[in-house]
TrEMBL record:
Domain SGNH hydrolase-type esterase: 39-195
Listed PANTHER family: PLATELET-ACTIVATING FACTOR ACETYLHYDROLASE, PLATELET-ACTIVATING FACTOR ACETYLHYDROLASE IB SUBUNIT BETA HOMOLOG
UniProt protein name: Platelet-activating factor acetylhydrolase IB subunit beta homolog
InterPro entries: SGNH_hydro (IPR013830), SGNH_hydro_sf (IPR036514)
Pfam families in alphabetical order: Lipase_GDSL_2
Record-stated family: Belongs to the 'GDSL' lipolytic enzyme family. Platelet-activating factor acetylhydrolase IB beta/gamma subunits subfamily.
Organism domain of life: Eukaryota
Gene3D superfamilies, per the entry: SGNH hydrolase
SUPFAM superfamilies cross-referenced by the UniProt entry: SGNH hydrolase
Length: 225
């Protein structure tokens, strides 16, 4: 069985139970707050919540953020199967996960993401699912950066004909002409800086505004490469 699509909690390697505590907090937030948009995924989205961009753009759209540092596809799938989206009535769900599946193939990761999409669809048949592309990583060219690019390619092909699922390109502009990523864009060469978040997530913000204010967009209106 593909480990990327087999729901599993994140291993408590540090022994403090934080992952499960965060999951339980998300369960509580889901029951107590109304949200039009749910962000769910990994450290990329978790870090976004602590930026000026989140406060300026996304918080006013009535967003909740159910993202956890280091989560892989199987972890997000487990969280969804264990109630995080059961008590919400969001119009849009933004999913970003896969960059932490460092031990799996692009095909496995893509299948894991698609399994999450199908699970979301089962719970929320009419919700719009937005998939920001995986970002490049590492200061210099490396196999993980290449793998994320391959996952993006595979996922874009798979979701092209799925109704109410939209992939948004957010990974352009990070890699410079010499193949490096600047610390001005990613301090740790993984998580975007405030300025880089504004550039990367602008097409996501534009799409959310369009969905929330005008209804479902046509496929060809989505920001493209």
């Amino acid at each position: 069985m593909n480990p990327c699509s087999a729901a599993a909690p994140q291993q408590d390697t540090e022994g403090d139970g934080r992952w499960n505590s965060i999951h339980n907090r998300f369960l509580s937030d889901a029951k107590g707050k109304d949200a039009d948009v749910i962000f769910i995924g990994d450290s990329i989205l978790q870090a976004l919540e602590h930026t000026e961009v989140w406060n300026q753009w996304f918080a006013p759209l009535h967003c909740l953020n159910f993202s956890i540092h280091k989560d892989q596809t199987q972890n997000v799938l487990w969280r969804i199967k264990n109630g995080e989206l059961d008590h919400v009535d969001a119009r849009v769900i933004v999913l970003h996960v896969g960059t932490n599946n460092v031990d799996h193939t692009p095909e496995q990761v893509c299948e894991g993401i698609l399994e999450i999409v199908h699970t979301i669809r089962e719970k929320h048949p009419s919700v719009y699912i937005v998939l920001p592309s995986l970002l490049p990583r590492g200061q210099y060219p490396n196999v993980l950066r290449e793998k994320n690019a391959k996952i993006n390619q595979l996922l874009r092909e798979k979701v092209a004909c799925i109704n109410k699922v939209e992939m948004v390109t957010i990974d352009k502009g990070f890699i410079q002409n010499d193949g490096t990523i600047s610390h001005h864009d990613m301090h740790d060469y993984l998580i975007p800086t405030n300025a880089a978040c504004r550039k990367a997530f602008e097409p996501v913000y534009d799409l959310l505004q369009q969905i929330l204010s005008e209804g479902e967009p046509e496929k060809d209106l989505t920001p493209s490469e």
